[in-house]
Amino acid sequence: MSWDRVERLIGKQNLARLAEKRVGVVGLGSGGGFAAVSLAMSGVRKFVLVDDDMLEAANVVRHVADISFVGRSKVDAVAELIRRRNPNADIETRVGKIEHHLDVLDGVDLLVAGVDGEGPKYVLNQACLDRHLTAVYAGVYERGEGGDVVVIRPYDGPCYACWAAELREGLSFAVTNEELDYGMIGADGTLEAEPGLWLHVVRIAAAQADLALNELLVGADVHKTMPGNTVILANAALEILDGHTSLPYSAVWVNLERDPNCLVCGEPMRQRAALGDEAETAAVSLADLMNSSGIVREDGLGED
Ligand SMILES: [Zn+2]
């Protein structure tokens, strides 16, 4: 197996650098599976793959894994597809919900979030803030008419929570929790409206993989500074900004900022200080004081 073609494009040193980066891909549906294999084909060699799902016959028309993988976990299927592109790949796999496998993120250099729905994204957001781990999130809009990709660098710009709140306020079309991301399974476990054809989903996933690759090359000569932290891609004609219809296949870049009052990444102590002494006293709980002073509670709550 030869990496000549990739080496010629990005350089020997950069390829070696990519081969040493460990990338976590959480969620291996249409988008996450495509992003994982695409990263492997671009020189990433070390992966951590997490997904709780089995590949079903209904998935096959919109998944990198074909009918020969039906009945196997998506994690195993994607791991095998990566090894077919790079037999030297180093892949750790976990079958289960990310909530139960957050420890795998400890040794990861970058996270690619391919999870369905907002709940798991908020779990990942907190885990990434805790670890100062950069993550690339993607969402596909209803019927695959477009989607967005954002690079979230903890405490350097918005976290996923403040980003999502600001994006949804700013977009001229409705993106709510009905945003279906890559997934097709509803809250009750049944099939929901299809988020789009494979070719519309993978267009968003290709941008996600590309931005992930760029992020792995920060500091290298081939790294590109992007016009913002967020790209909104139109697959169909889409009114992204008020009064302006974006043409099919066009993109709008925006840079969304961190919300200093964000309940997830904000700075509560600084906010309280801004309210004045009286308010500060009232707002700080005993638990906060104990936490900030390093006092360990010895009442044994929760130990039994
Ligand atoms: Zn935030």
Backbone structural class: alpha/beta
Question: What percentage of amino acids are in beta strands?
Answer: 15-25%
End-to-end gap: 55 Å
Can you list the strand order of the major beta sheet? 3-2-1-4-5-6-7-10
CATH class of the largest domain: Alpha Beta
Describe this structure in words.
The chain has 304 residues and is of the alpha/beta class. The protein has helices at 4-10, 12-20, 30-40, 74-85, 118-131, 160-170, 198-216, 268-274, 277-283, 286-293; strands spanning 22-26, 46-51, 90-95, 110-113, 135-140, 146-152, 230-234, 238-241, 244-246, 251-254. It has an 8-stranded mixed β-sheet, sandwiched between helices. Strand 5 and strand 6 form a beta hairpin. The relative contact order is 0.13. The model is unreliable at 176-193 and 277-304 (pLDDT under 50). Zinc ion (ZN) binds next to helix 6. Zinc ion (ZN) is lined by residues 158-159, 161-162, 259, 262, 264-265.
Break the fold down into its secondary structure elements and pairings:
Layout: H1 4-10, H2 12-20, E1 22-26, H3 30-40, E2 46-51, H4 74-85, E3 90-95, E4 110-113, H5 118-131, E5 135-140, E6 146-152, H6 160-170, H7 198-216, E7 230-234, E8 238-241, E9 244-246, E10 251-254, H8 268-274, H9 277-283, H10 286-293
Zinc ion is lined by residues 158-159, 161-162, 259, 262, 264-265.
